[in-house]
Amino acid sequence: MNGAEILVRCLENEGVDTIFGIPGEENLLFLEALRKSSIRLILTRHEQAAGFMAATYGRLTGRPGVCLSTLGPGATNFVTAVSYALLGGMPVLFITGQKPIKKSKQGRFQILDVVRMMGPLTKFTKQIVTAGSIPPLVRDMFRIATQEKPGPVHLELPEDIAAEETDTLPLSLTRLYPPHANPAAIAIAAALIKQAKYPLFLFGAEAKRADVCRVARDLIAKTGIYFFTTQMGKGIIDEHSPYSLGTAALSDHDYLHCAIDRADVIINVGHDVVEKPPFFMNQKDVQVVHVNYSPADIDEVYFPQHEVIGDIGNSLSQLVQFACNPAAPDYDYFRRIHQEINTHVYGAQGHDRFPDTPQRIVSDIRHTVADNSIISLDNGMYKIWFARNFKATQPDSLLLDNALASMGAGLPVAIAAKLLYPERQVVAVCGDGGFMMNSQEMETAIRFNLNLVVIVLRDNGYGMIKWKQGGMGLPGFGLDFLNPDFVHYAKSYGASGYRVSRGGELAELLSECLKQPGLHLIEVPVDYSQNEEVFFQELRDKTCLL
């Protein structure tokens, strides 16, 4: 086999069934090897979108997604997606092409030091210099990508190495088992919980493994301790639970933070400080227990007093075995906060007016889609509203990025989710700014016959930045733009296009679109005046002395 063929064989050996990307002339031998393989190629319209899709594959399966680009501009277009995977903890293998490294007649044309560029953005990056080194390199890359914390790795395949012959074969697979926490650390954590009067559990993105979710549900059911989640931890336990205090969509001053401020012990399970903080630690008398695969990254807002380091599922199982019920808990206050959140957050469905308020949009979507649906959020003002007001029923049912928080990911993420789970309803919710950054991927969705709904929230500007600008008392400037006619834009790709023109119409249109095959785009004008009314006025005037 040549280098390209052994690389593809190694990918098949690792269980790879899909590659996302855009090949270039430097990838042609790899492309030919791919044609003869069992791996399907999802050809995209931009490398950034391919990277978002591969990262989502890794996020949803726990197995590294794989994506492909050529050298130079193809590789540089990967940078945002690589960063997205790095901060978000998503296992991905990025493969880029390169000119021949042993003899080339093209000088420095299109040549960048891609390996050096990828260094700060990946867990590991390497140029392949001999075809015979490919099997151990691929095996090592997949191990590194999936080790805690998961993330991106990068391989550069030069043209001449792709053509070089080798008689090597793929290596056998091995499985890594994370170590278990020290029993003494578990005992200390259990003792802190038993002594607590106002304990709370916090669940973050690293707790979304299937085995962890099961044990977490058991732990909450057996102890009756109230819990909340980070944005990327939503759905670890069904948020309809009577013990759920919702999601920390803001870092402070929300109804949830009344409970956080009352807590004397917070057991922080699987939270990573790359997420926007769910709360700010201070020097008050609260004990924070860090339960994770890796030690805490200490900073001025997060400095846990105790750490339980090891396999999270096993750590929670041991806490269950310790029967760590608080000896004399006082949950009356948390019950009242639970009711306040149900009334003022989940119960706030917005006014029946046009344009729709964010609360009404969230409520209409939640009550229209199935419980096992997948909602993919781009980044914008609406992400806070969805994180705060949308009750997630299971892990990864609300896909959002609270780490890099890049715009442009909503549609590519939804495409990857639909490719993985064709039987589930998938809806992408994008702002008009983020949608236009990768809107060309509508063609990709149509080419692969995906049944998908895209909701574009139109406010003709960068709404979240405008909110922050107003919050600083600054006059509006530099954040407004014009938009195409989204209905005609969708139809130009062969999709169906609709526009909400009256209050309450979104639920009707969405319900109808979910019943029909194909790609559907719904343009929804949105009224963000609720940002001021809720986040500045209502939350400022609330009282925690219930």
Structural class: alpha/beta
Distance between the termini: 72 Å
The beta-strand count equals 18
| The level-1 CATH class of the largest domain | Alpha Beta
The side-by-side strand order for the widest beta sheet comes to: 2-1-3-4-6-5
Total number of domains: 3
**What is the helix fraction of residues, given as a range?**
25-40%
Provide a descriptive summary of the structure in words.
It is a single chain. This protein is α/β, with parallel strands linked by helices and 546 residues long. It has three domains: 3-163, 3-Layer(aba) Sandwich (Rossmann fold); 183-337, Rossmann fold (3-Layer(aba) Sandwich); 347-536, Rossmann fold (3-Layer(aba) Sandwich), CATH 3.40.50. The protein contains 22 helices and 18 strands. It has helices at residues 3-13, 28-35, 47-61, 73-76, 79-88, 114-118, 134-146, 159-163, 183-195, 210-223, 255-262, 312-321, 332-346, 358-368, 381-389, 410-420, 432-435, 442-447, 463-471, 486-493, 505-515, 530-541, and strands at 18-21, 40-43, 65-69, 92-98, 124-127, 152-158, 199-203, 226-229, 244-247, 265-269, 287-292, 306-309, 374-377, 398-399, 426-431, 452-458, 496-499, 519-525. A six-stranded parallel sheet has the order 2-1-3-4-6-5, sandwiched between helices. Strand 1, helix 2 (28-35) and strand 2 form a beta-alpha-beta unit. Helix 11 packs antiparallel against helix 13 (332-346) and helix 14 packs across helix 15. It is globular.
Question: Which key terms come to mind for this protein?
Answer:
Rossmann fold, 3 domains, alpha/beta, globular, single chain, 546 residues, six-stranded parallel β-sheet
